[in-house]
């Protein structure tokens, strides 16, 4: 896998983060303690429905999961719905520690989208209308704005569907992780199937050695992935890296996308 450090650098940050190492085998990451605790609480064994009480989500069987089919079902199920996507990723290694987080409020027709990205002592926001995409980058006391025509949502952190399927592929599909159903959980009134994969299920090309991999997907019967969490340790020669990523989908059909407070200033400064 390609090895590229996560970066959050002004206007280029979306491009860099969108290509961050290709998958977990390319970099290092530590799981946010709060996120890890929430995932554990959501998936701990308890009373309630079992796998016998639910239908398998698309692509899921007792023997494993077709991630491509599940990703397609996830995107299709969210089509026409508003939702909020949150994504956190970090890298830890003997050389450096890096982390970033992103939240996207997505309108039902994808015409209006508000994305906030933070990390490396910077923050960036993008707000998209049907015609324009506005960018606000804040570093220390400096704030810069840019505006451009919205032409098919070019290089950015999330794909044009904003559903996060790109990251399911990069952090699970590209390491050939095999997710098997292990139970059912009730989370915020939703009945979710718990899918797990571990180090025995993954492979990496080249000379990269995956020494530890753990991942969990919480998915409903329609295929919507409500939470995806993965972490891995990789080694190449005498160097090691640990990666982790968490993605959540929430507030389906309850998310509203309002204009950010800085939009008028962005329009004035960019004459758009």
Describe, in plain words, how this protein is organized in 3D.
This protein is an alpha+beta fold. Helix content is 16%, strand content 39%. It has helices spanning 13-18, 33-43, 67-78, 165-171, 263-270; strands spanning 60-61, 64-65, 83-93, 97-106, 113-119, 122-128, 132-139, 142-149, 180-187, 190-198, 209-219, 225-236, 239-250. The chain has an 11-stranded antiparallel beta sheet with strand order 8-7-6-5-4-3-13-12-11-10-9, with helices on both faces. It has a two-stranded antiparallel ribbon with strand order 1-2. The radius of gyration is 19 Å and the shape is globular. The chain starts with 12 loop residues before the first helix and ends with a helix.
Characteristics:
11-stranded antiparallel beta sheet; 5 helices; two-stranded antiparallel ribbon; single chain; 272 residues; disordered N terminus; alpha+beta; 13 strands
């Amino acid at each position: 896998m390609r090895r590229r450090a996560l970066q959050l650098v002004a206007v280029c940050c979306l491009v860099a983060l969108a290509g961050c190492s290709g998958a977990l085998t390319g970099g290092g990451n530590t799981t946010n303690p709060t996120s890890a605790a929430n995932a554990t609480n959501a998936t701990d064994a308890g009373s309630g429905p079992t796998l016998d009480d639910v239908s398998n989500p698309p692509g899921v069987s007792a023997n494993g999961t077709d991630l491509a089919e599940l990703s397609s079902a996830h995107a299709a199920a969210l089509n026409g719905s508003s939702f909020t996507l949150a994504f956190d990723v970090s890298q830890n290694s003997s050389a450096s520690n890096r982390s970033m987080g992103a939240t996207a409020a997505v309108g039902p027709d994808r015409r209006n989208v508000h994305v906030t990205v933070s990390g490396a002592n910077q923050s960036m926001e993008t707000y998209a209308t049907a015609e324009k995409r506005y960018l606000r980058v804040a570093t220390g006391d400096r704030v810069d704005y840019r505006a451009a025509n919205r032409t098919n949502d070019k290089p950015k952190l999330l794909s044009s569907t904003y559903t996060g399927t790109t990251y399911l592929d990069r952090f699970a599909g590209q390491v050939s992780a095999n997710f098997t159903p292990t139970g059912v959980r009730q989370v915020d009134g939703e009945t979710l199937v718990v899918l797990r994969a571990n180090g025995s299920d993954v492979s990496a090309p080249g000379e990269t050695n995956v020494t530890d991999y753990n991942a969990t997907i919480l998915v409903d019967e329609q295929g919507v992935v409500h939470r995806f969490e993965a972490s891995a340790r990789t080694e190449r020669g005498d160097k090691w890296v640990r990666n982790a990523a968490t993605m959540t989908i929430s507030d389906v059909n309850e998310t509203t996308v309002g204009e950010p407070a800085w939009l008028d200033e962005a329009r004035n400064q960019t004459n758009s």
